[in-house]
Amino acid sequence: MPKSARESWSAKNLNSRESDAVEREWIIRGRTAQQPPLADWQTWLILGGRGSGKTRMGAEWTNGVAQAYRPFSDVKSCNIALVGETLADVREVMIDGPSGIMSVSRAERPRYEMTRRRLVWTNGATAAMFSSEDPDSLRGPQFDAAWCDELCKWKHMQETWDMLQFGLRLGFNPRQVITTTPRPLGLIKCMLADPAIPVWRMKMRENAQNLAPGFVNHVNGLYGGTRLGRQELDGELIEESPDALWSRLMMEDIHCSDVPELKRIVVAIDPPASATKKSDACGIVAAGLDEGNIAWVLADESIAPAKPHEWARRAIALFHRLEADLIVAEVNQGGDMVAAVIAAEDNSVPVRAVRANRGKALRAEPIATLYEQGRVRHAARFPALEDEMCDFSHSGLSSGRSPDRVDALVWALSDLLRRRDGNPRIRVVG
Hints:
This protein is of the alpha/beta class. The chain is 34% helix and 17% strand. It is built from 16 helices and 14 strands. The chain has an eight-stranded mixed sheet with strand order 3-4-5-2-6-7-1-8. Strands 13-12-9-10-11-14 form a six-stranded mixed sheet. The longest helix has 15 residues, at 404-418. The protein is elongated, with a radius of gyration of 27 Å. The two termini are 42 Å apart.
């Protein structure tokens, strides 16, 4: 139920005193994305950016299961494990932090026993502290619930995780919640591939009302659209193939919004073989060449799925918007049909047909080399294109799909850096 609907239900069904009491409870206050899964589960994975509210969610859940608060649990959990990167993190973030257990405990705050490193509620429930620096500390203890915070930062991740799983053996249905900013690590990938594990994703901007004024605009200005921003603010899992022709580090170094005057601009199209819902995307990438023969990637307007007239109109619109010189179109799949479709939409647009005689990786290798030499810049962040570039290797994409954006990029840059003719022209790009 959306938060607005929950608030409306409270106002209609409760008197003022009851409504005031319920207003403070998480079932009303928490965002929809912060409510626990309704279906049966044993492991719940919460991937979130910095400041997205994931720690608050873990703390609310822990306090809720300790005291049998709905919607967290109908039966109290008596033996809970709190596992963090270090014991200091468990104490300063998970327990005493602004969004920690002590802060969210409204009806009753648990007692902290320093010598035994645990929290104790008056109903007998306990929550013991454990560190990823010492996986063997989890040998022996038994639990019916666990909260694992920032799992992707754990020192001995797999060993600590394994020891915890052996200890989750009390109660009717032991459960564990993981709150973390994601990284492309094996354990996280295994969880994401497991259909039995519900996965919640949260972004920093969704929790903006609870953050310092100006903070969201400040960090978005610094990191918005970057690999680091997508991971740390949006909670995205940013993967990179070790054999890819391009790297994430390279992507961070080539971005520059100050585009100089360009003497030539082309729009490249890599059309799909069909136009069904399962068809490949149509790669549409624009690039230009400056006076110093530095290539600039200007736009990625790739579209999927798309019928021929749809991708043709998009490419033509991009051609006119950038005042381009030419559309370069691969014709291996469509032959003369590609040029005919473009001409049917606008016969004034010049089209150069190109045919692939070598494999995709072999065509892309010289372009990747140009990136390494510093001869290519990106005028903006193109997340989908960058993701494809950093996943593309000699064996193709890890998904097995066609690298349509990369193909269009390669055709555009190959045309620009192969040709040295054409008189300089001044254009305004943006």
